[in-house]
Amino acid sequence: QILTIVHVDDRVTGCRTGLFTRWTPHVDRAGRDITGWKVGMARQEAGSIGKCQWGRRQSHCSSKLKLPIENNYPSLDGIHASSRPQEIVEEIVMNQLYIIGAGPGGLEYLSPITRAALESCTDLVGHGLYLNLLGELTAGKTRHKTPMGEEIARATLALDLAASGRTTALISSGDAGIYGMATVVFELLARKPKPEWATVHIEVLPGISAMQAAAARVGAPLAHDFCVISLSDLLTPWELIAKRIDLAGQGDFAIAFYNAVSNKRSWQLLEARQTLLRYRQPETPVIVAFNVTRKGEELTITTLGELDPEPLNMLSLVLVGNSETRRVGPWVYTPRGYHTKPELAEMIDHHDG
C-alpha cells in the first residue's frame, strides 16, 4: 500500500546524500496525524535514495523510499500496524532550484557536484553567453535565455519553473554569489515572494570566479588581504564606489576590479588608477585578464602607472597589486610575510632588488 506525502514541515532534517536522521511531521495535507514516524534507518532499509537535498525550511524530494511499518506505527486510513512488518512507499515531491556558478568558462573547471546538478535538470535559465559556455551539458534540456539587464525577470522565471515542478538551474558565470544571480533570487524572496515559491528547495553551488582563475594564471597576486570592487555605477552610486577605492588604497589591499569598463564608460578605471597612485608606486604590478579559460584568452601584466583602459571591454578583469606585490620571472605574487622568517629572510634579500 502507498502513502504519498506532499508536504514536510520545518522539522525535517537530514543530509544531502539522503540518510534521514529524524522525521517528525505532525499532520499531512490530508489532515492525518502521523506524529512520531521515524525513518532514521532509511538507507539501510531501502538502499540509496538518490540525490536528496534537505534544508531547514520546507523540503521535498522526488525519490521514492521504501520503509517498513513496525508494530508501534499508528493506523493511517486503512494502513494498519500489525505483528507482521509491511512495506510502505513514501513519495516526497521535491521542487528544486540550483543556483549555479559555472566558473570562468572552461568546462574542466566545473566541480563534480555542479556537473551532477546540471545533469539532473530539465530546465536551464541564464544569459545566452553563459548557457552557450556549458556546451554539451545543455543537451536535452530546455534553455531559457534572457538578455543582459533582465536579471530580475531571469530569477523570477527560474523560481516559477522550479515551483511548477521543473528541476531548474539558474546559471551565472564564475561564482553565483560574486556579482551573480544568487542575491537576485534572495532579494525576490525577501521583497516580492510568491506563495508557490515556498515549495522550492534552493541550493547555491559555488564556482571558480574570474579573479581566482586570472590570479592562478599569473601566480599568486591575491595571496594576502584583498578586496573586490565593481566599477559599474548602474546599481551603486559612484560616490560610494570612489570611497571604497580610496579606503582600499589606504588599507593597502590588492584589488580585483570587475566591470572595469563598458562600451559607454572608461573614466571610472582612470579615476581608480589616479586614486590608487596616491597610495602606491607607479611600478605596482597590474594584471589585465580577458576571457580567462575561454577561447581567445588574453593576459597582460603591466603596471599601475601604465594601465590603459582603452583596449579593455566589459569582459576584462583588472587585478591591482598592493605595495608589496612583485614579479619573479614570469610570475606575479603578493608576499604574506614569510620573508620575516629566518630561513627565508636571507634568500629573499639576496634575490630581491
Report on this structure.
- The chain is an alpha/beta fold and 353 residues long.
- The chain is 24% helix and 24% strand.
- It contains 9 helices and 18 strands.
- It has helices at 42-46, 112-120, 128-133, 151-163, 182-191, 210-218, 238-250, 267-276, 342-351, and strands at residues 2-5, 13-14, 20-22, 64-69, 86-92, 95-101, 123-127, 142-146, 168-172, 200-205, 219-220, 226-230, 254-258, 285-290, 298-303, 316-320, 326-328, 331-333.
- It has a 5-stranded parallel beta sheet with strand order 8-7-9-6-10, with helices on both faces. It has a 5-stranded mixed beta sheet with strand order 12-13-16-14-15, sandwiched between helices. It has a 3-stranded mixed beta sheet with strand order 1-5-4.
- α3 links the parallel β7 and β8 (142-146).
- The protein starts with a strand and ends with a helix.
- The model is unreliable at 1-92 (pLDDT under 50).
